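can u pls check wat happens w/ flavin-adenine dinucleotide
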Amino acid sequence: MANTAQTEHTTRHTTQHSWDEECDVLVVGSGGGALTGAYGAAARGLDTLVVEKTAHFGGTTAYAGAGLWLPGNQAQARGGLEDSADLARAYFRAVVGDATEHTLQDAYLDHAAATVAFLEDSPHVRFEYRPFPDYFAAPGRFDMGRAVFPVELPALEGPHDLVDAVRPPAWAERLQLPTPEGPLTDGRALVARLLLALESTGNGRTRLHTALTELITEDGAVVGAVAEQDGRTLRIRARRGVLLAAGGFEANAELRREWQQLPGADWTMGAPGGNTGDAITAATGAGAAVDGLAESWWCPSLRFPDGSAAFTLGLHGGIFVDGSGRRFANESLPYDRMGRQMLAAKAGTSHDNPVWWVFDGRFGDELPGITVVPADRAAFTEAGLWRTADTLEALAEQLGVDAEALRDTVQTFNGHAEQGVDTDFHRGEDPYDRFFAQGEGANPCLVPIEKGPFHAVQIVLGDLGTKGGVRTDADARVLREDGAAIPGLYAAGNTAASVSGPCYPGPGVPIGSAMVFGHLAAVHMAGQSGA
Ligand SMILES: Cc1cc2nc3c(=O)[nH]c(=O)nc-3n(C[C@H](O)[C@H](O)[C@H](O)COP(=O)(O)OP(=O)(O)OC[C@H]3O[C@@H](n4cnc5c(N)ncnc54)[C@H](O)[C@@H]3O)c2cc1C
């Protein structure tokens, strides 16, 4: 059910035309949805202006692996995968069901292939299929996945100032290390490729350090926006419309407490400095309805000594225990599903209910899993976030959990490992579980915990961004509470309530759906949708 955000009314109504700048299409934000929309508009001859709040283009999209769930596309076909919108529809309906409007789901699925074809018409954009399993066992699933990824971009292919303007990888930003030399990969490749495509049209302008603050309406239609650039206030006219693709509100502690009942914004993986919900707030000020504000793309995350946390996936060893010393889920679950288990168990959701990732000495100084920001063991140990002991009992004492419970949990798990069957949580029964496994025997996901020293590392509930926001229709038009579209206003990505609702169906749904709806917005603004 839709709900309305309690936000200050920030829209400016205007009858006078004192503009500092004009364009056909104003795009707010510079992630995958924003830049697909910008390129889509500019390639159709529309004068397009992209404004980005921070010092870099790309937002969280630049941090991403940039798997893109775009079923039935030509890059999948080149990779030998026979996918289609209908196969994907069977899967999407099975896992998302009626949680979101079927018209919205169909708009995504039916325009995914065309979005890829349109983008690959540019010599700057190229995708390739790589295996990464879908997240649920359901009809229409691909066990080795259906996501495509941007082909890496040789660093020298683009003008250097543009390449330098793309947000660095998450690990480099977090650890304050230099941006790596060499080709741009993953999300950075996507952002740079889309920027190059936009630039090649001759119709696109981009601006950093420029933040949307308000929308300007006239007779109920959005006709422009107010933005702050280096302390200057700009009134920008947008003749065809404004596309809001400015991420979610993951970095806004106040909104997270209000809308998600979470302690704050420290544990998000969203790119810093940008995604504070400005576009959602501005849109509700213009009359937009909102939905799903409690939702995020969840993930278990390693807690860092500075109070932040980093996305952790692909466990190949160890178990998660809650404060009682017991397991509560299949640790090999896809990350959003694990996050939802953590929410249900109230495990790792606040400082008071820690989750510990317990593993044994066979991994040396390494964590048995993938963390997108590497952990420095000495610093973690000093901060009490990485504990080590020669026996499980001593480890339990350090963690403040019941020693008998922890010993019993480990014994039971080791029994499962010996049998090759996790009768408690069915770990290792799904192709996704096994994708990351490195163990041996009948069930390589079940690696016994038996050789000291024993380790425990703290895990909390993190996210890749929030996914509730303004309600939109099949043309990415922003809707009012009564279902009517607000003329001139469009949204994509995490600014919009997600097409997948409270579900993360497979790798690449966040950016893939952002790109499709960004493109649909451009098509509509160009007057080509027939809607
Ligand atoms: C490590 C990691 C890996 C991931 N891997 C994948 C993956 O493989 N596939 C996938 O689909 N998803 C992945 N995700 C999730 C995905 O990256 C995000 O959900 C998605 O990129 C969000 O896109 P967006 O366009 O909504 O926001 P963003 O990409 O964050 O872009 C929003 C931009 O808007 C700017 N902005 C905010 N407010 C304003 C304002 N007022 N004015 C102007 N600009 C503003 C921000 O600064 C930002 O640059 C991953 C996330 C992480 C952290």
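The chain has a mean pLDDT of 94.
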